[in-house]
Specification:
Elements (H helix, E strand, L loop, with lengths): L1 E5 L7 H8 L6 E5 L2 H10 L6 E3 L5 E3 L3 H25 L4 E5 L6 E5 L3 E5 L2 E5 L4 E6 L1 H9 L3 E5 L2 E2 L5 E2 L3 H12 L3 E6 L17 E2 L1 H10 L2 H14 L5 E6 L5 H6 L4 E4 L1
Parallel strand pairs: 1-2, 1-13, 2-10, 5-10, 13-15, 14-16
Antiparallel strand pairs: 3-4, 6-9, 7-8, 11-12, 15-16
Helix pairs in contact: 2-3, 5-7, 6-7
């Protein structure tokens, strides 16, 4: 089993990833982001995206109804269906899904985020959550029927409401249920970097204990990604690749050691 996480940046070479995927054994599941498309749509529609900074210094978007509308347009609509289209062009019988469809992904609503705003601390509640359960019979049926699931946010909360979430946490949940042998994270960087400003500072190999050190010094989106990696590595055996999705053959380069590799 391979889980492919396609980052939400506009320069990720999805076509190259899919071309390489044809050479890997199946089955596989694709999870994708679309933050670049969401932000572009927000500008076109004059819907400013509010960003929060937690007490610990991590940034996130404020997920209200307006943000979820943007997610549905960008993630579930434009980006998801274009990826499905590219899959079909390459012979993959892909099915595009959000966590809403068939109750595929259920999440627990976040109780609130403690933020710092105007030098004051306060609790902010929004429409976000953490994925906790899969409709495994549905996913299992798709995989056994030789479909390629292409999954993204939003997910369902306890009351059946759409909530925003981290797709990296979905990758962790999928691994828990599917026991993937390989998981690929395709990002807009050469790999995990010791110095985010220096593209030559790639950490080519990382052990689970060393990952803990990286977690303590990372913030923002990368910090959340590393926390998801920690949960993934807690269920061995698995090999995780954090690799440059902008290359001509991203999967081949990852397997040849050009990015970051973590094994457990």
């Amino acid at each position: 089993m391979n889980i492919i996480k396609i980052g939400g940046g506009s320069s990720v070479n999805v076509g190259g990833i899919l071309d390489d995927l044809k050479k890997l054994e199946r089955p596989a599941v694709i999870v994708h982001g679309a933050n670049a498309w969401r932000d572009e749509l927000a500008g076109h529609l004059n819907r400013p995206i509010r960003r929060l900074v937690s007490e610990s210094g991590r940034s996130s978007v404020y997920s209200d109804d307006s943000l979820l509308d943007l997610q549905l347009m960008a993630y579930a609509g434009l980006r998801n269906k274009r990826i499905v289209e590219m899959c079909q062009q390459r012979g993959f019988n892909a099915v595009g899904l959000t966590g809403l469809d068939g109750g595929l992904v259920r999440a627990r609503r976040n109780p609130g985020i403690r933020i710092v705003e105007n030098n004051r601390k306060r609790l902010v509640r929004d429409l976000s959550g953490k994925p906790e359960a899969l409709n495994f019979p549905l996913l299992d049926y798709l995989l056994k029927s030789n479909y390629l699931p292409v999954i993204t946010v939003p997910f369902l909360d306890e009351r059946g409401n759409a909530v925003n979430s981290e797709n990296d946490d979905l990758v962790s949940l999928l691994h828990r249920e599917l026991q993937a042998q390989r998981i690929f994270f395709f990002i807009e960087a050469p790999g995990l970097l010791r110095d985010p400003l220096n593209n030559s500072s790639i950490i080519h190999r990382l052990t689970p204990p060393e990952l803990e050190t990286e977690i303590t010094r990372s913030d923002g989106r990368m910090g959340r990604k590393l926390h998801a990696l920690k949960a993934i590595l807690a269920i061995p055996p698995v090999t995780v690749f954090i690799c440059d999705g902008r290359l001509e053959h991203p999967v081949q380069h990852a397997l040849n050691g050009s990015g970051t590799c973590i094994s457990a």
